[in-house]
Amino acid sequence: MASVRRPRVSPAPGDPVPKPMPDAGPKPLLVTGLPRSGTSWAGKMLAAGGGLVYVNEPLNPQHPPGLSPGILNAVVTHRFQYICRENEESWLSAFADTVALRYRFLAELRRNRSPYDLARMGKYGTSFTVGRLLRRRALLDDPFALFSTAWFCERLGCRAVVLIRDPVALVGSWRRLGWSVEVRELLDQPLLVRDHPVVLRLRDADPDPIAATAALWSVAHRVVTDLAAAHDGIRLVRYEDLARDPLGGYRELYDWCGLPWSAKAAARIRRACSGTASADRPFHRTGLSRTAFRAMDSAAHLSSWRDRLTPDEIARVARLTMRSAGPPS
Question: What is the DSSP pairing of strand 289-291 with strand 284-286?
Answer without folding.
Answer: antiparallel
